[in-house]
Amino acid sequence: QVQLVESGGGLVQAGGSLRLSCAASGSIFSIYAMGWYRQAPGKQREWVAFITPGGTTNYADSVKGRFTASRDNAKNTVYLQMNSLKPEDTAVYYCHTGDLWGQGTQVTVSS
């Protein structure tokens, strides 16, 4: 059974950068499209980014130009490079595919 494990969150000042990773167990990772989502306190979970098996990406308007999704199929891992972080990016970030969700990783951006 495929499992997703996120890592790379932390505390960063506004304007800083973080790179999140999502490692997937399972040998057929390369055929899955992967999504990144986030949930801030008191808010609904929202979609952030999407990457197809071939590497095509799409982003929410709120992160476009600042966040970059990528994947390394040989390592069964997807990444979310987050630059120019803002306090409003503070949230728990999740990776997702199909009906699977990771446990989430906390990102906190201080002003």
Output the keywords.
111 residues, mainly beta, seven-stranded mixed β-sheet, four-stranded antiparallel β-sheet, 11 strands, 51% strand
Q: Mind explaining what this structure looks like?
A:
The chain has 111 residues and is mainly β. It has strands at 4-7, 10-13, 18-24, 34-39, 46-51, 57-59, 67-72, 77-82, 91-97, 100-101, 105-110. The protein is 0% helix and 51% strand. The strands form 2 sheets. Strands 2, 4, 5, 6, 9, 10 and 11 form a 7-stranded mixed β-sheet that branches. The chain is globular and about 40 Å long.
Uncertain ranges = none
Count helical runs: 0
Largest sheet: 7 strands, mixed
CA gyration radius, whole angstroms: 13 Å
Indicate the structural class. mainly beta
Total strand segments = 11
For the terminal residues, how far apart are their CA atoms?
Answer: 41 Å
Oligomeric description of these chains: single chain
- What proportion of the residues form beta strands (DSSP E)? over 45%
Shape: globular
User: How helix-rich are the residues, as a percent range?
Assistant: under 10%
Rounded average pLDDT:
94
Write the element-wise H/E pattern from the N-terminal end onward: EEEEEEEEEEE
Structure summary:
The chain has about 110 residues and is mostly beta strands.
Write the layout of secondary structure elements.
Layout: E1 4-7, E2 10-13, E3 18-24, E4 34-39, E5 46-51, E6 57-59, E7 67-72, E8 77-82, E9 91-97, E10 100-101, E11 105-110
Parallel strand pairs: 2-11
Antiparallel strand pairs: 1-3, 3-8, 4-5, 4-9, 5-6, 7-8, 9-10, 9-11
